[in-house]
Fold this sequence. Notes:
mainly alpha
Amino acid sequence: MDFPLAFANGLTALYGFPCDAIITENTVNSLTDDADERGYLMSKMFPSMIVGGFVTVTITSVIFAGYFARLLGGGGIIF
């Protein structure tokens, strides 16, 4: 993976899904007007950005759920 794409994937921690999908689509659309080139760029960028966004949202949700569970008095593991 190239550094710019890895850096963009790291930034998904700031905005998560679905913002990463919108930003990726807007970036690709601003880079080219050619449909073939747009398809190539989307095939290279979109999958990794979507996975990064989902992972970020999932990790954040688990952290917040654990925090709020402790606030509500549940100190143990929640099933």
